[in-house]
Amino acid sequence: MRDARERLIVALDVSSAAAAHKIVAAVGDSARYYKVGLQLYTAEGPQLVRDLVASGRQVFLDLKFHDIPNTVATAVKEAAKLSVSMLTVHAAGGGRMLQAAVEAARNTNASPMILGVTVLTSLDARDLEHAGVRGTVVDQVSRLAALAISNGCHGVVASAQEAGTLRAELGDDFLIVTPGVRPPGSGHGDQARVVTPAEAIASGASYIVVGRPITEATDPGAEAREILAQIG
């Protein structure tokens, strides 16, 4: 992935297809991957995903499946019919669920990459403690990443703050997709573990996910190009 445009995923965290298409048009050739998450998918459903794929874009379907193995497997099969490139499942769903997701994806024509979500970037050590998780954030991220990779996932979703540790412990033969990325000077919003685009790539991230700094910019295309310059 030498081209920086292959490493930027623009998060379409908006409530309508019209708003999403406006952002995509404004960003233009500066990004090839777009994230469709819970907000947009709930508002517009699978047709929006089909339209993005038909326009030549790569879709990262970020619905974070977390259920019993059979339910997740059937959901993955349906997502694969949309020709998405990547989709997410919660690594905390356990080994059998992860294996079911990977196997379901493998047995489809699209064969989307399955990414195990580790610890959400909105959470910090205190949040984990309140949820009954012992140890540090990086401990939990490492545990869940190892579980995901050992059960066949193509990669994980984790903050770039943990990416270096994951590379040191688990190697380079898997993807790390990092949300919580903010250009210098941007507000953090509801994110707790935040890094800049350049820091994310330097830490070992394969892809960075950027939403509001691009989608809420006066000129989304110019903002995307500035981020490309930072990671290029």
Please specify the SSE layout and strand pairing:
Elements lengths: L7 E4 L5 H11 L5 E5 H7 L1 H9 L3 E8 L3 H12 L5 E5 L4 H12 L6 E5 L7 H6 L6 H14 L4 E3 L2 H11 L4 E4 L18 H7 L3 E4 L1 H4 L4 H12 L1
Parallel strand pairs: 1-2, 1-8, 2-3, 3-4, 4-5, 5-6, 6-7, 7-8
Walk me through the structure:
- The protein is an alpha/beta fold.
- It has one domain (4-231): Aldolase class I (TIM Barrel, Alpha-Beta Barrel).
- The chain has eleven helices and eight strands.
- The chain has helices spanning 17-27, 38-44, 46-54, 69-80, 95-106, 125-130, 137-150, 160-170, 197-203, 212-215, 220-231; strands at residues 8-11, 33-37, 58-65, 86-90, 113-117, 155-157, 175-178, 207-210.
- The chain has an eight-stranded parallel β-barrel with strand order 1-2-3-4-5-6-7-8, surrounded by seven helices.
- Helix 4 (69-80) runs parallel beside helix 5 and helix 8 (160-170) runs parallel beside helix 9.
- The longest helix has 14 residues, at 137-150.
- It is globular and about 45 Å long.
- The model has no long low-confidence stretch (mean pLDDT 93).
